[in-house]
Amino acid sequence: MPDPRRRHEEGAALLTVLLLVAVMAVVASTALERVALATRMTGNGGAVDQARAFADAGAEVARLRIGDLVASNPTKMTLQGGWMGTPQTVPVPGGLASVQVTDGGNCFNLNSVVTGESEAALKVRPVGVAQFQALLEALGVDARQAQRAASGLADWIDSDSVPQPGGAEDETYAQAERPYRAANRLMADASELRAVAGITPAIYDLARPWVCALPVADLSPININTLLPDQAPLFAMLLPGKLSVGQARQYLAQRPAEGYGSVPQFWAMTARGGIVPEAGVDQQVKLTTGFFGVTVSVDVGGTQAVERATIDARESPARIVRRSWGAGA
């Protein structure tokens, strides 16, 4: 007769074996999942590196083409030739790249609110501050808010610690939930504007498409031969209180197809309407373009990369002075 205790021991042994098999299955499954994840991550990393390499190559090609474009007519840059804003698609191994070139100087240069030869001696430039305020007002920002934002920007960049009327220095930023200090240097990227007192999220979102941070403290170098009618606020900001956005749009629509041949020729057009620029502003507008913006979008096997570069073409050869990556770059 079978021993009942023996059957009990056999059942316990079987249960133990089943538990061990289940544990081993879970461990094996986890290990395989991690190996698969590591394999995918390695593959994705390689695809991203490849996409970035193609984007870098695209920016370099654009730099050379821009150099040729500027050299073809060093005294005047116009929209002729369809170079601005037109995406150029280029096949690359495993995907496509798209390169788009824009006039990188047709924006408000945030660094123009100061003047100075060194970071230790940056002083407020009233004309630049007034233009930023005028731009914000042209975009629909309340005059008081616009004044506060413009003063805050000047204090953020200038070298001293004395706030402008309505502006802010270290003592203001020290009271923030996470205290910080004013930069007291030129901005490297327009996204820094978010840290400036008086710049609300709504104002930043409104202003971002219209501003830039060029690597110089010059007044915004607006090329009147490439400025589009849709960019009329950038023209109106040059003449605060004298020119509405609607008037600016009309003047831009009247531009000759071949562009203006001289700056006095352009201002003669506004003078006929009784609009005369202040001293200094008349030379702020340009017939040439010194900075170009390049956007390279690459899609390789479903992996996407976007590179944005600023190219300085004021001297030959043109050179890339800034790169950024990502959809929000």
TrEMBL record:
It comes from Sphingobium olei. Keywords: Cell inner membrane, Cell membrane, Membrane, Protein transport, Transmembrane, Transmembrane helix, Transport. The lineage of its organism: Bacteria, Pseudomonadati, Pseudomonadota, Alphaproteobacteria, Sphingomonadales. The gene is gspK. Residues 106-215 form the T2SS protein K first SAM-like domain. Residues 222-274 form the T2SS protein K second SAM-like domain. Its main location: membrane. InterPro entries: GspK (IPR005628), GspK_central_sf (IPR038072), Pilin-like (IPR045584), T2SSK_SAM-like_1st (IPR049031), T2SSK_SAM-like_2nd (IPR049179). It is found in: Cell inner membrane. This is Type II secretion system protein K. It comes from the Bacteria. Belongs to the GSP K family.
